[in-house]
């Protein structure tokens, strides 16, 4: 359908420089440059290192995206950029570049919400999203449960982590086990050779916590419990069963995430659960979510792993929906907002 | 050719339009907002308004010149990301210039110290003679600038001075033979400022170097104003930020000769603040 808008998306909220191009719901290009290796020795993303890398990577990544989609900037109908939430300095590089492209090529500019973009990306793989839907976003930077009534108009946060993000917990436990960074994929692989035989705590699931934190998460206590368990084994001079610890830790995280996500679906009478963010790539999370959702007739939609982690395609996907819905573009004084609330899916002009 | 100049290395966001012909530069329009936290919000509307005021479409631009800093990183990157993306979208070359050079160039004849605010109670600074940079850019505490300059001058001129000819013309001659034009210019400054004597002077205390700072005729840049008491050099209060026309002038040769586009890499001068975690010992090593 040539009438569908051709939208460019720019993502620089954390350590991935992403440029995506979509036409309607069709993904044409998804170019990515990551600074993850530069952060590895620090055990987490260093904002200034990420910002420097974004500035270096932007122009070449844009060129790769345009080449891949076989279009020029003149062909683009609108430019969408993550304007928040995220690392302030990193966001600003993408927003400034998006403005440069918008001014030079005379295109409308949409500042969009990173979390809403994580939800929108699913449309590239599974088509239009049935609404309302529950979205669970789990990554190194965020862990949220959202009620999506109309993605172009606002998303209602139901709950979020009260301490570490889910991905952060994976990173910290991986470091504790000497497995490297980022922790998610390594723990997933290591857990495959072990069994979830150790009973680690499930944060905010006790009856007394559920009253105030029904849809919130907490992973800090779990991380501490893993550390204590490991230290006790070492103190006793016993070998640490890395695979079993990984599997048990992963099981505790996935158990809480999926239980709360399904609970959110049932509570709000919603039959669609979308999972996004880097942790959505976790193999156990996918299996457990499918298993539990099936019992209640809930459909689980998880985009393929490359689309779950931060990328430009997700921003373009949300931009495409905003253009199609006739939402007003942002103004050129669009700020980068590191704490952008979910009530604003895009920054209207 | 119409050239767009952008600079966000200081609290000012500057967008300027300059007409470059074979023999002259003509300022067409310029906008500036001074707000150290708002480059990201101010710059793009300024560009848009500057172009509109001059009735110029982006497609009419022939090149973009951007101030590479040094300057506070977050704001600095706004100008460079904007310049790079516009250059890519328009298919025109981008050229980088040192932002301090823009101020130094605009300051005109004489010996000039340029200093901008590097935050954390430090300044980015460089020195100029007749608009040409001799030292820097560097970053230091204001009170240490004199000493940094003195050490550098002494180091860079010792060879020339050792050759013993202490009259200005002789220094220039011997320095040219030794190290080329830049060192010769430097030696000339030293002769004029009588700083050459430091080569033999064992007294390196702060008061001594501070006195030597007086060799500058003027200082420019908002850092020079902010720490005026420490530098003790008359400040050109009208010249606190890099003017667009001066930035374009610095790249004029490249623009006129159609030099290849340059990647706009900031002059960071500082490494990212990042410490490797001592952290918990891995279980397995
Ligand atoms: Zn994300």
TrEMBL record, chain A:
Cofactor binding note from Swiss-Prot or TrEMBL: Binds 1 Fe(2+) ion per subunit.
CDD domains, A to Z: ASKHA_NBD_TsaD_bac (cd24133)
Organism for this UniProt entry: Paractinoplanes atraurantiacus
Protein function: Required for the formation of a threonylcarbamoyl group on adenosine at position 37 (t(6)A37) in tRNAs that read codons beginning with adenine. Is involved in the transfer of the threonylcarbamoyl moiety of threonylcarbamoyl-AMP (TC-AMP) to the N6 group of A37, together with TsaE and TsaB. TsaD likely plays a direct catalytic role in this reaction.
Cofactor list: Fe(2+)
Binding site for substrate: 137-141, 171, 184, 188, 282
Protein name (record): tRNA N6-adenosine threonylcarbamoyltransferase
Lineage summary: Bacteria, Bacillati, Actinomycetota, Actinomycetes, Micromonosporales
Family under the similarity heading: Belongs to the KAE1 / TsaD family.
Location, primary (coarse class): cytoplasm
Reactions accelerated catalytically: L-threonylcarbamoyladenylate + adenosine(37) in tRNA = N(6)-L-threonylcarbamoyladenosine(37) in tRNA + AMP + H(+)
GO cellular component terms, semicolon-separated: cytoplasm
Keyword set, alphabetical order: Acyltransferase, Cytoplasm, Iron, Metal-binding, Transferase, tRNA processing
SUPFAM superfamilies in the cross-refs: Actin-like ATPase domain (SSF53067)
Residues that hold Fe cation according to the record: 114, 118, 310
One GO term (biological process): tRNA threonylcarbamoyladenosine modification
Residue ranges of coiled coil: none
Automatic annotation (TrEMBL), chain B:
InterPro entries the record matches: ATPase_NBD (IPR043129), Gcp-like_dom (IPR000905), T6A_TsaB (IPR022496)
GO biological processes: tRNA threonylcarbamoyladenosine modification
Alphabetical list of Gene3D superfamilies matching this protein: 3.30.420.40
Domain of life: Bacteria
Pfam families in UniProt: TsaD
Domain Gcp-like: 37-151
NCBIfam families in the record: T6A_YeaZ
Protein name: tRNA threonylcarbamoyl adenosine modification protein YeaZ
Biological source species: Paractinoplanes atraurantiacus
